[in-house]
Amino acid sequence: MKRFSRAAVLGATALAAGLVGTAAQAQVEIITVTAQKREQTLLEAPVAVTAVTGETISQAQIRDAADLQTLVPSLSVGEFAASTNQTFSIRGLGSSSFNPGVEPSVGVFIDGVYVPRQGASINDFLSLERVEVIRGPQSTLFGRNTPAGVVSFYTRQPEFEFGAEGEVTVGNYNARVAAATITGPLVADQLAFRLDGNVNQRDGFITNVDGREFNDRNRWSARGQLLWDSGGATTARFIANVGNIDENCCAAPFSNVAPSELFAFNQLGAVVPSGDPFDGTTAINGPLRSQVDNWGISGEINHDFGGFTLTSITAYQSYEEDQVIDADFTTLDAAGARQQFQDYNAFTQEFRIASNAGENFDWMAGLFYYDNELTFQNETPYGSQLAAFANLASSLDPSVAALAAGLGLGAGAGIPAIMNTIIGGNNLTGVGTLAPTPSGNAIPTVPANGYLGAGQGLVNETYNYDTSAWSAFGQVDWRVTDRFTITAGLRYSREEKDYNPNVTINDPFSQLDAVALGQDLRLPSAATCLNPAIGDTCAYFVPAILASGGAPFNPAVPLTPAQAADPAINFLLPLIEGSGLQFNVVNAPFTPGSRTDENVSGSIIFGYDWSDNVNTYLSVGTGYKPGGFSLNSNSAATGLFQFEEETTLNIEVGVKGTAFDNRMVYAIALFDQSNKDFQTETFVGGGFYLDNAGEISVRGLEVEATVAPTQNLVFAGGFTWLFENQYDSYEFGPCPRTSSLPEPGLAGNPLFADCLATRINQNGFSGRFNDLSGVDRGNPEFSGFLTAMYTHPLGNGLELSLRGEASYVSSQNLNGALAAMPSFEQDALTLINGSVGIGAEDGAWSLQFWGRNITDEDYYRGTFFSVGTVGPSTNSYPSNPRTYGLSLRARF
Fold first, then answer.
1. Where are the beta strands (DSSP E) in 507-553?
2. Phi, psi of 881 (to 5 degrees)
C-alpha cells in the first residue's frame, strides 16, 4: 500500500459506499479523494472520510442530503419549516439554521468553493462525480465553520470527447424527474464544455383540509462549464450555475394535542387536529411556501511551475429566499403568517501552492479571503384569534377560572381577559382600585383591542450583517522513513462582523413586569379572604395566604419587593411570566455593533504503514467557528445578542486496510472530540433559545467496510457508535416554556428542578434556566447501514442488477437541549430501500424500478413545542412516506 502522502488513483468506487466490483476479478476498487486538498486514495488519506460516488447516488435514487445520510452513518440531516432549512451534523455536532447569524458547524463546499448556507447546496445532486464527508474538525485546510467536519460535492468536469447522458424518472405522488448532461470539445484538446440541467417535480405528501397539498417538490437547476488545457503547465475551469426552488413545504401536523388546546379548538370552531402526523393530513388556514433563487460563478486555475503547483479558486454566489409560513399550524388565526426574507452575496478567493511529489517532504501553503453581505427580515404578527384562544386554553386552569369568576368575567375568560380587567381598572386586588400607585410605578395602559390583540407581536425585524474574513494556512508532510510519516499544519484566521439591527415590537403583554406590578398588589387579610361574603375572588388568594403561614395581609398596604418576587404570594407571576404567553422581549437593546475574532487552529498526524495492506494514524486536531451576532429578536430572552467563538479538539486513532486479496477494504476510527462554547439554538415554544453551551464531549467508534465475494456481488456497510455524547458543562440551558412544567411526568423530573426558580445567567439576565451539565444530548447512540448489489449477465449484452439497502438509527431525542422531554423521543428506526433493473452491460442504457422507505416507516424529521399555545402541545415534521418509481437512463 502506498504511503499516506503520495497520491494515487486506484479506481472510481467508494470505500463503504461504492458497490461495483471490477470486471476481471473480485476486487474492490478504491476511489481517489481530495480530503487533504491533494489527490489521495481513501486508504492513504489519514482522516476519517466517506466518499459516495455519483454512480452510487444515481443507483440509490438519492435526491438530496436527507437521503445521503442513509449511506453515511455519522452524518445527520435535520429539516424544519422549509425544504431549504436543512442542517448537517457530523458525530452529533451541528448548528441550527433558524438564526442566520449562527453559521454552520459543518462546512459545505461545491467544487472547492465554500458555500455559506447549507440550504444553497440541496437543489438536487446535478451531475455529481462524488461526495466526500470528512469527519472531525477540518479547520487547518478548510478554514471557517468546519469544527464538526466537511461535506464536499464534486461535479463532473468537461471532457474532450463528445458524450451525453439523460434520465427520465416517474413515480408515485406524480413524481417527474428529467436530467441531462452533454459534454465535448470546442477546440480539440484545448477547450471543452459541459452543460447540465435538471427538473424535479412531485405532488405533496400531505393534504390540507381545504385540498391544498404540502411537502411537494418543484425545483430546477442548470450548470455550464468550460475547461481549458494549455497543453502545457496551465489548466483552467470555469463554472456558472443557476437554480430555483418554489415549493409548498413543510407541513408540521400536531403530534400531541393538550386538553387546553383541544378545548380551545372546539370552542372556536377550528378543525381539530387528528394528533397523528402520519395520516397524511393537516389543518391550517395560511400558506407554507418557500421560494429560492440562487446563482453563482467560479473559476479554478492551476499552473505547474515544476517544483510546485499554484492554484487559484475565485467565486461569487448570490442567494435569495422568501418564506411565508402559517406560524400557528392551525385553522385558527392565532398567529399571522410568518414572512422571512434572506439575501446574501458572497465572494471567496483562495490562493494555494502545493509541492509536487517530493522525496521526503510535501508541503502546501495558502491564503483565503471571504466577504459576505447578508440581509435578513422577519415579520410575525399576532392573529385576530390569539386572545380568544389563550383565554379559552388558560381558563381550564381551576385557579385561573376562579379568579376570572371573582372578577365577574364570564365562562371561558382566561389570562388575557383577567389582565385586561385588572390592569385596565388599576384593580390589582380584585376588590378596589389603586390611585395613586403606592410604588410609584406607572400602571400600564391596556391596548385598545386588549392584550394579545391582532396586529401586536413581532411587527418587523431587519438585520444587515456584513462579514469579512481572511486566513493563512500551511501543512507539511515529512516522510521520516518509508513507512512513517508526520503531517503538521497551522491556520491563522481573522474575521470581522458588522451588525445593524432594526427591530420593531408591539407586544404590550410581553412588556408586563409581574414583579413591578406586584409591588402595587394588595391582598386581602386572611380573615377577610376566608369570609364567604367577599366572593369567589378570594378563592384565588387563599393558596397564597396559606402558603405564607396564614399571616394576615393588610389591604391598605401593598406587597414588599420581596413578596412581589415570591410566586407563592404574587399571583401575577404565574399569570404573566408562567403563562407561556410572553412571546417577545420588548425594549431590548438591539443596537448596532461589530466584533473581531482571531484564531489559530492546527493539526498533527502520525501515520504508519504496518504493511502494504494496513495503514494506521494518530491525529490531534483543532477546529474553529467564529462568534457573531444573533439575527433573531428571541435572543433578548437570554440577553445574548452576541455569542462567542466555538472551538473543537479531536483526538483520533484510525486503521485502514485491505484484506483477502483486495476483496475487502475497511476503515476504523476511534475518536474523542470535545467542543467548547458550542453554539446551540433550541426552540422552547415562544421562540428560539440561543446560547454558548459550556463544553460538550463526544466519544465514539466508526467502522466502514466494502466486501466483494465475487465479481458480481458487492456488500458495503458501516456503523457509528457514540458511546458518550453529553454536555460536560451547560449551567444555563433552556427550560420548557412554562414554569409549571405541564407535561405528564415532568413535574417530579430532577432534570428540570432548576427550572422552578429564577436565576441570573452569565449575561446578567434573570430568568428560568436549567443546568444540563452531565446530561446526554439525545443523539442516537447507534447508526449504521448495510447494502448489497448483485449483477448478473442475461446474454445478448444485457445485465440484471439487484440492489438492497438497510439503514438503522437507534432511539433518540429530537430536541437535545430538552433531552428529558418525552414528547421529543423517537424510537429506533430501520429503513429499507432497494431496486431491480435491467440494462446494457456496457452501460449504454438501463431501466430501474426502485423504492425508498419500502416498509413505509413513520418517523419525525423534527419536533417542537406548538406556537402560541399554553399547554404542552407539540408539532412534528413527518418523514417522507414510501416512494417508488421507474427510471430510464441512457448514455451516448
1. none
2. -75, -170
CA separation for the pair 260, 258 (Å, rounded)? 5
Question: Judging by beta carbons within 10 Å of its beta carbon (0-12, 13-18, 19+), is residue 795 exposed, middle or buried?
Answer: exposed
Express each pLDDT in 714-753 by its tens digit: 999 999 999 999 999 988 887 765 444 444 445 556 666 7
Domain locations along the chain: 32-155, 163-382+459-506+586-891, 386-453+513-579
Q: Which residue(s) pair with 179 in the sheet?
A: 167, 198
Q: What is the DSSP string of 620-633?
A: EEEEEE--EE--SG
Residue type, 262: L
Write the DSSP symbol of residue 329: -
Cell numbers given for 792: 448478473
The overall pTM is greater than 0.85: yes
What does the block give as the cell for 455?
Answer: 396586529
State the SS3 of 718-766.
EEEEEEEEEEEECCCECCCCCCCCCCCCCCCCHHHHHHHCCEECCCCCE
Distance between CA atoms of 49 and 600, rounded to whole angstroms? 24
- CATH class of the domain whose range is 163-382+459-506+586-891: mainly beta
Distance CA 87, CA 816 (A): 15
pLDDT digits (tens, 9 = 90+) for 25-35: 567 777 888 88
- In whole angstroms, give the CA distance from residue 42 to residue 35: 9
Reference 508, options 468, 455, 567; nearest CA is 455
Beta pairing partners, 621? 603, 650
Number of helices (H), then strands (E), belonging to the chain: the values are: 13, 44
Q: Which of 569, 762, 720 has the alpha carbon at shortest distance from 93?
A: 720
- Indicate the helix (H) or strand (E) that contains 214: strand 213-214
C-alpha cell at 325: 409560513
CA distance 625 to 139: 9
Please name the fold of domain 32-155: Ferric Hydroxamate Uptake Protein; Chain A, domain 1 (2.170.130)
Cross-strand bridge partners of residue 56: none
Average of per-residue pLDDT across 171-180: 96
**CA neighbor of 282 nearest in space, from 218, 214, 216:** 214
Q: Give the tens place of pLDDT for each residue, 403-449.
A: 887 777 888 889 999 888 888 765 555 444 444 566 667 778 889 89
pLDDT of residue 20: 43
Q: Report the C-alpha gap between 808 and 579 in whole angstroms.
A: 40
Can you tell me the distance from the alpha carbon of 812 to that of 818, in angstroms, rounded to the nearest whole number? 12
Query: What is the 8-class DSSP label of residue 504?
Result: E
Report the C-alpha gap between 521 and 99 in whole angstroms: 39
